[in-house]
Amino acid sequence: MFDRFNRKIHYLRISVTDRCDQRCIYCRQKGENPLISQKDVLSFEEIFEVTQKAVEMGIDKVRLTGGEPLVRRDIVTLVSMLAQIEGIKDFAITTNGTTLDRFADALVKAGLQRVNISLDTLDTARYSEITRGGDIEYVLRGIEVAKKAGFSPIKINCVIQDSSKEKDAREVASFAKKNGMGVRFIRKMNIERGMFWPVDGGTGGDCERCNRLRLSSDGKIFPCLFSDLAFSVRELGAEEAVRQAVKVKPKSGLPSKHNGFNAIGG
Ligand code: SAM
Does residue 27's CB lie within 6 angstroms of at least one atom of ligand 1? Predict the structure, then answer.
């Protein structure tokens, strides 16, 4: 699929839930946004059908995200369902890693190839502050188990204030290197103000090269993280929702009012 700016669209990021076991200070938009009602959350069968249709239309890269994807009940079952879809060449997850020690083996066995783990600092107190009470030990344990489970590669997502030269970022970079993992520095973005930057070490945030669509956990295809336009797969059917999203994909992101990273998946 090509959009009107001749960008090849072949990457679908699926938010499987807007729930999360952490409350990172930069993630949600203003205050406490209402969570998506459980009755509106796509079932595994619906996610499978949308993904299958999207793959028929040209998607070959799929990432599960959230919220926190590992808090979605029976996530391993969903992974094994999606892994059956022929045509997905790259199948990954983005997680905060807090429960990865429990899930890593099962996820690899179910067919997941790659994992990105979010870690902004190695400082215990700072980690707790950023995540509003999170315990870094769970993440470090999750990383150890993920390494042994056979994900390849493992990448660290590190949100920075301004620069990858910051102390926290430098420490995360050397931790990643020591552990044979890649690192992507994501400068803090603001959806409401339309503030975003290219991801250092990744492909996100670079509008000219953007290849993505996003499926929210309540079944809307967003053409861009910074867009209030969205197309419901329940109302339009998956094919039409994907088609319309590709058709209006903006040249560049815009200030948006939607519920933030946790709602449509960062
Ligand atoms: N819960 C999972 C996690 O923590 O990786 C997946 C969802 S989270 C929304 C996905 C990524 O978005 C994480 O790496 C997170 O750090 C990043 N993120 C969240 N809010 C952000 C913001 N305001 N600016 C930049 N990155 C952000």
Answer: yes
220 phi and psi angles, rounded to 5 deg: -115, 135
Domains of the chain in start order, with CATH, are: 11-264 (3.20.20.70)
55 — phi, psi (to 5°)? -65, -40
Q: What tokens appear for 30 in the block?
A: 């203003």
Return phi, psi of residue 118, to 5°: -85, 125
Kindly report, residue by residue over 74-83, the tens digit of the pLDDT: 999 999 999 9
Q: What is the pLDDT of residue 110?
A: 98
Position in ligand 1 atom list of the atom nearest CA 190: 23
C-beta 216 within 6 A of ligand 1 = no
Instruction: State which of 64, 118, 155 you would mutate to test the pocket of ligand 1, scoring each by most atoms of that ligand within 8 A of its C-beta.
Output: 118
pTM beyond 0.90: yes
Report how far apart, in Å, the C-alpha atoms of 99 and of each of 65, 102, 138, 172, 222 are. Answer: 14, 6, 7, 20, 28
Q: Is 259 in the pocket of ligand 1 (CB under 6 A)?
A: no
Going from the Cα of 250 to the center of ligand 1, the distance in angstroms, rounded, reads: 22
